[in-house]
Amino acid sequence: MLAIINAELVMKDHYIPDAYILLKDSKIFDFGKMKKMGDITGYEVIDVKGAYVGPGLVDIHTHAGGGHWFYNEPVVAAEFMLKHGATTVLPTLYFDMKAEQLMEQMDVVREGMSTLPHSNFGGFYMEAPYMNPKFGANRENNPWKGPIDKNDYEPLIAKGGDDVRVWVVAPEREGIKDFAIAARKVNPTVRFSVGHSEATPQQIEELMPLGLCIGTHHTNATGTLEIYPECRGICVDEAVNYNRDIYAEIISDTIGIHVNPYNQRLIRRIKGDDRIILISDACVFDGPIPDGDLYDGADDILFDFSGEIAGSKLTLDQACRNFMKHTGASLVDLFKFASLNPAKAVGLTDRGEIRKGLKADLVVVDHKMNVQKVIVDGQLAIEN
Predict the structure, then answer these.
(1) What average pLDDT does range 240-262 have in this prediction?
(2) Cα separation of 298 and 230, whole Å?
(3) CA-CA to 342 of 20 to 30 Å: which in 112, 191, 192, 282?
(4) SS (H, E, C) the chain
(5) Would the pTM of this model clear 0.70, i.e. be above it?
(6) Tell me, what's the pLDDT at 285?
(7) What's the pLDDT at 139?
(8) What is the helix, strand, coil percentage profile of the chain, to 5?
(9) Distances (CA, A) of 168 to 35, 37, 90, 179, 366
(10) What integer best gives the mean pLDDT of the chain?
């Protein structure tokens, strides 16, 4: 049992200053103002001396951590992300691998993360297999360009089972609805995300009844479908913005290359604070930075070997700090974008906010979202 005292609790829509929180049997047992705290005999006590305590961060879209692919070194990658406050991660597997390789990677991740003393494995985010071959880093090595065939995808769906939280799809691909139906038969609660796509709004909306509720790295790797000269087309970004039930993932890097800071503020205004998800999209690509000064200061983004942007070096706490700088978001807002919203979007309803009975995953941070301590299942896991 763990008691955290003298905290400023970050709730879903407000703060509780001068507070305590009690953790018992891996759950949040009680919390409130210090002056109302009862007897805590038998509890291990951590005095955070006025620091902020919020729900553990939930990174639903991350391929790597600290320069290590999850599919190669899951323990190292997971522990790095945990140190930065991500008490839940969804290791993300990519479409540049064949089915057999993706299934092997699932085994490596499952086996490795099961050995962690404080596991932060929340399931898989499958940025595979059926994207539009026109989009995405390393797309020249995409082995899924041919027709969608159930003989190819059924073994992959079966291997993922209930561990797959999200399948990213390009709704314009012929046969994608059959794939989605097959995935839902194996896991009725699985979600779909539109990404690496130039689908029309109608094609996207046709998949929403099957569980499409996320826009993968919103405004990145999507088409425009311009029909009339000098007139902006209506495509994926517009559909994600318009549909209230679709969450928008945002990669908020330091200088705003993935998503321009003005666009981050615009998306927030359009979508509202309960539909924004911050992600790291961390990768390990080491391609060359293009010549010139266009990317000066961009020390947290990556490039593939063709010189195109290929994910980031971000951790979710850094993404929060960047989003705070770009949009003026408060800590209450940031925990919504990096904990509550992503947990809700992928169906992890047992975490993401401070509420009695929920999973006792917490982070202790300062006012700039620098992580000081990490608690997993009611136990101190990290002390920075």
Answers:
(1) 97
(2) 31
(3) 112
(4) CEEEEEEEEECCCCEEEEEEEEEECCEEEEEEEHHHCCCCCCCEEEECCCCEEEECEEEEEECEECCEECCCCHHHHHHHHHHCCEEEEEEEEECCCCHHHHHHHHHHHHHHHCCCCCCCECCEEEECCCCCCCCCCCHHHCCCCCCCCHHHHHHHHHHHHHHEEEEEECCCCCCHHHHHHHHHHHCCCCEEEECCECCCHHHHHHHHHHCEEEECCCCCCECCCCCCCCCCCCCHHHHHHHCCCCEEEEECCCCCCCCCHHHHHHHHHHHCCCCEEEECCECCCCCCCCCCCCCCCCCCEEECCCCCEEEECCCHHHHHHHHHHHHCCCHHHHHHHHHHHHHHHCCCCCCCCCCCCCECCEEEECCCCCEEEEEECCEEEEEC
(5) yes
(6) 85
(7) 82
(8) 30, 30, 45
(9) 48, 46, 13, 11, 35
(10) 96
Fold of 2-52+368-383: Urease, subunit C; domain 1 (2.30.40)
Q: What CATH number should be reported for the domain whose range is 57-352?
A: 3.20.20.140
CA angle 132, 136, 142 (to 5 degrees): 65
3-class DSSP assignment, residue 246: coil
pLDDT computed for residue 308 by the predictor: 84
Please state the domain extents for the chain: 2-52+368-383, 57-352
Name 21's bridge partners: 4, 31
